Amino acid sequence: MLVRVAIDLALDRLFDYEVPKELEKKLAVGQLLSVPFGHRTARGFAMEIGDEGSGVRGQGSGGRSYALKPIEAIVDEEPFFSTRLLELVRALACYTAAPVESVLKAAVPAAVVKPNARAKELYFIEPALAPAPVPMTARRQWLYDQIVRLGGGWMQQLCRELKTTPASLKELGRLGLVTIAPRQKRRDPLGNMRRILPTKPLPLNGEQTAALGVISAATKPVLLFGVTGSGKTEVYLQAIAKELESDRGVIVMVPEISLTPQTVRRFASRFGDKVAVLHSALSDGERYDEWHRIRSGAARVVVGPRSAVFAPVRGLGLIVVDEEHDSSYKQDDNPRYNARDAAVLRGKIEGARVVLGSATPSLETWHNVSLGKYELAEMKCRAGAGTLPAVRLVDMSAPQRGDSSGAIFSHDLLDAVKLRLDRHEQTILFLNRRGYSRSVTCAACGATVDCAECSLPYTYHRADDCCRCHICGGWIPTPKVCPACGAPSLQYKGIGTQRAEAALAKCFPNAKILRMDADSTSRKNSHDDILSAFRRGEADVLLGTQMIAKGLDFPNVTLVGVLNADSSLNMPDFRAAERTFQLLAQVSGRAGRAELPGEVVIQSYDPSAPAIVAAARGDFAAFAKEELSVREECFFPPFCHLAAVNLRSKDLKLVSSWADMYAKSLMKVKGLTVSEAVPSALEKADGWYRWQVVVRSPSVSAIVKAWRWLLAQRPPPAALRAAIDVDAFNLV
Ligand code: ADP
Ligand code: ZN
């Protein structure tokens, strides 16, 4: 018997091994194996099992000879991947043109596969059932009585609580008064959260009832299109409860950034111990235990970011993808899969329902609804107490009265903030401008101070008076004179969150302001700390980047201000209008979530842009109609598949000539629309020159086939990196 194994090497090839007789009966596809590889032992997954003479033969690791080596051991007899999960893995590898090993790697946490991964075992002490009489000292008797009273406990914990030592406890064990045995101790990321009182299902309103009905009856994926605050989560919860009743498992996917304790609590407080979470902030031990709870069936509801789509849930009945439009579902490294699309595929393979939820669906999903591939459930009203906020557009190109802060804050917005301060209500201010804000420019010659490694201007940081590059992280002390012409005329341009914070503090010296951006949240947990402080009412204003735009629910926020609605509109990307609409709609959704009515002020230099007008009206359908007609005319997704061939090298001539050659070769393939090779919008990053070839076609497999063929014909030299990003999200 032979087995074909995927070893974590990203060589895009599998290796065959002999199966020793004694392992033949135990071997199954999807198991983790240890195998000899070169001079070491490697771990890998069993992908196919076959006999001599079947397809499985001849790709041994043994070099020239075809003598196959035997596998060493089956690490775990319980498969890590069911045959259906393996089918998903293979399909994604195919679709994204990634090695199957890289998809396997994305699918199981490293904490579960690594050689020293194991459950935590500690000594647990229990009173013996019928201890034989032994001589008792007073101290010994007291200890024994305490252990009986507590009903037992962990060795360490008892030592601490009873102020005793392991030696004294072991002595009780030797005397037969207690039993001491190793026992698995669960590392639980939810800890205390499991102990909160369970929430009861809310009585659903009409729209929610109808939506739940559509989901229960659906034979296709369902788009749950509900305005922010329409109660989508309650619908998910009740759909999940139905699955649990018939003993089916559930996966709930949420964007990593909204995987806050608040989100997790909503699921954990309804389903308690049945909930497992998987996300990047867990310790290795927690991840190990949660993953095993899922595989064993102890946990039935998995909440996690994109990788949760691979969770080894048995009897999968439902996958929920919340905020399905979110860009974090697309992995921007190998394998470049979109977890939302992977969820739809897994649902198909496993016969599970799929619900995609959003207040601002992606145009891909919306288009699939109009093609009849997906069903639609719509919720137009807010559930519970909230009402949709009133939205006001402020034209920033009209002259503003007053002081220098006029370029940042319109008087309309300042008046609105003041009103909230007077009423002790809270405000969120949103500056859709990370990165390139606040560049340093010379007034004499117009030069900007740029990072030498990347092609972008530095961002001025006031806190430590330096210029930082937001691409490579490099920094220089702020120059005193222009590096180009030497004039002492450097000025700061653009508005960053730090400058907005300073300007606001000047207008309202008594207001308490919290700032949230990549700089203020670099510390672990600082993200949650800032949000919790704001929720507790410790600040009047929360000022931040897109980090604050998503899924958060603050009852006391009645004003949301968008300082610069246009900045994302000017990005060189065909999705710029869609992103702008989504951002504005999501941010606006933060206002008036509870009893208090909300107001939204959107500042824009281009207030007649369709995306901004539609967002201000909250009119997704109108936006989608207009934008889809543009996409169709220009042959952009969802009317085609778009893949970016990304090339980079430290050698500009090398990368440009190869990009050109690849583009010209792809142009000869029938059925593909191929752009000229061009430098990427971010031309240079970290010292690497970046070029791009955009390929479009109605057929993904046509693109992938052509690219694989080309790579085999003209493999890139060592100094050149080449990768294809199928259904690319970011062209920058
Ligand atoms: P969404 O996920 O669509 O933005 P949420 O699920 O966060 O909306 O719901 C918004 C608010 O409405 C929450 O505070 C929630 O508890 C409340 N809510 C949802 N459904 C109901 C209902 N049927 N009755 C009363 N309140 C509800
Ligand atoms: Zn740089």
Question: How would you characterize this protein structure?
Answer:
With 732 residues, the protein is of the alpha/beta class. Helix content is 31%, strand content 23%. It is built from 21 helices and 31 strands. The strands form seven sheets. Strands 11-12-10-13-14-9-15 form a seven-stranded parallel sheet, sandwiched between helices. Strand 13, helix 12 and strand 14 form a beta-alpha-beta unit. Helix 8 crosses helix 9 and helix 17 runs parallel beside helix 18. The longest helix has 16 residues. The radius of gyration is 29 Å and the shape is globular. It binds adenosine-5'-diphosphate and zinc ion.
Strand ordering within the main sheet? 11-12-10-13-14-9-15
Q: Roughly what is the average pLDDT, rounded to an integer?
A: 87
Low-confidence stretches: 58-65, 401-405
Shape, principal axes of CA atoms: globular
List of distinct ligands in this structure: adenosine-5'-diphosphate, zinc ion
Strand content: 15-25%
Structural Rg: 29 Å
Largest sheet: 7 strands, parallel
Number of helix segments? 21
| Helix percent band | 25-40%
The overall strand count is 31
- Note the gap between the termini: 49 Å
Q: Which oligomeric form is depicted?
A: single chain
The class by helix and strand makeup works out as: alpha/beta
